[in-house]
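ARCHIVE RECORD
Type: protein–small molecule complex
Small molecule: flavin-adenine dinucleotide
Source of inputs: curated submission
Record status: active
Notes field left blank by submitter.
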Amino acid sequence: MRPFVYARPKDLMQAVQLGAETGQGPVDAPVQYLAGGTTLIDLMKLDVLRPTRLVDIGGLAAGLEGIEVGPKGLRLGALAKMSTVADHPAVRLDYPVIAESLSLAASAQLRNMATLGGNVLQKTRCPFYRDATWAACNKRTPGSGCTALGGSNRNHAILGWIRPAFPNIREISPSR
Ligand SMILES: Cc1cc2nc3c(=O)[nH]c(=O)nc-3n(C[C@H](O)[C@H](O)[C@H](O)COP(=O)(O)OP(=O)(O)OC[C@H]3O[C@@H](n4cnc5c(N)ncnc54)[C@H](O)[C@@H]3O)c2cc1C
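STRUCTURE (tokenized, with ligand):
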């Protein structure tokens, strides 16, 4: 485990200040918000993410976990839990696809911890990104290449992909 600073902001303003270095740039930011932690902690254990500061926003849920269904549509707070949204009667009634997709994701334990903000902002679940022993990964190290293009890429895309203009890239059939 690499050393990092753990910060617990008292309000949203302080959270924004503490996270000012965060940003989804080409290289992963040294400051990461900690929501449910269900994927961030995994990635730290795998040595893929190495933040120097974690800003725990879990204590700010009171103002950020709202679920509003109204004439203008559906509004979900960043700290709303996946399970809470999936079980919400109005979401189930008016937005069944969202309720169903959330209830099918991950496991009950994870859905009880995981937030919608974290779900949207989670890193790619590509196994090559998550295994730092693969050197070529543009997501981890911009410009290093993409192991998935020439390696096993089953389950990587549900809508297909366009062959890039690299002569040595071999397409792997999903049926193999
Ligand atoms: C075994 C397993 C199976 C899974 N299966 C699925 C699946 O089937 N479908 C699916 O969609 N997902 C799946 N996931 C991913 C899961 O949904 C995410 O781990 C979860 O939603 C992340 O939410 P979290 O609150 O724990 O985020 P964290 O782990 O706390 O954070 C994730 C990232 O988002 C950032 N972040 C979080 N909240 C905010 C915020 N409010 N503002 C700015 N940045 C923020 C963090 O800094 C971090 O970079 C699976 C995960 C596991 C471990």
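CURATOR ANNOTATION: Residues 63-119 form a domain with the Uridine Diphospho-n-acetylenolpyruvylglucosamine Reductase; domain 3 fold (CATH 3.30.465.10).
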